[in-house]
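Our consortium's second objective concerns turning raw sequence data into structural hypotheses that experimental partners can test. To show how far this objective has progressed, the report includes one record in full. It was chosen at random from the queue rather than selected for favorable results. The single chain below, 287 residues long, was entered without modification.
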Amino acid sequence: MKLYKTSFGSLLEYNGSNFIMNEPWDSLINRDNLEAYLLTKTKTSGQIDDDRVAEWLNDDSMLPPIGQQEVWAAGVTYLKSRDARMEESQASGAASLYDHVYDAVRPELFFKATASRVSGHNQQVYIRKDSSWNVPEPELALFINSNGVVQGYTIGNDMSSRSIEGENALYLPQAKIYEKSAALGPCLYVTSTPISGETVIRMIIKRAGVKLYEDSTTVSRIKRTFDELTEHLYRECDFPAGCFLMTGTCLVPSSEFTLQEDDVVEISIDLIGTLINSIGINPKHKI
């Protein structure tokens, strides 16, 4: 089942029907056995017709599926990500850091965004003006409730300023955390069954309608388990409203590629859907 957050309220799509969820987003999703709870709500909640569904899910109404949650991210969980970050850090002498963390017991986990910095489906994400090498990073994102249990999945775009991180690994927060540096959506895919390793993640990047990049992989290529990542994240942190965790970059454009303003990034994950973001530049800040 798919749960959408919109400016009208929360909408549940299940078995070809759509139901209005009359609860605040955070209390709705932050519970144990979320799928079972939503199933009970389909028996008591009102259905809406296709015309109203289209209104609720149009570009002006859809919101990222996040409330008061923080967004965190895991790094170097796929071999392709390790190799890319070693390449970008070669000149600074920090390449071995990423090789070591890929094989270490403790994963790399870092804070990514507050909800105010997260964009949704068909909204802009930004590239930094002080970075010469900017890329999108497609990721399967977990929604983990306040008890540390995965309740759903969504698509994440972890925007990254690779030239900044490559200059010095200690610049990671500047490379990763800025206005509109992350996107989630289009929905929260809710299931009590762990998502299959055969689930395909695909990314397409277009410029002026021309496809510049396309590649895909499967979730099975990840080195660490979701339980492992969740356990480390929740060891010394409390998340009263739950938390979103991006599980790592699995597709990386070549080192010759950098995003430009008005590029379009499409990230698709089986069962969840497609998250589309256009590329912008923050008009409020100049360098």
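The partners drew two points from this record. Helices lie at 25-29, 34-41, 50-56, 79-88, 95-103, 162-167, 172-176, 226-233. The chain has two domains: 2-63, 70-280. Both points have been shared with the crystallography group to help prioritize constructs.
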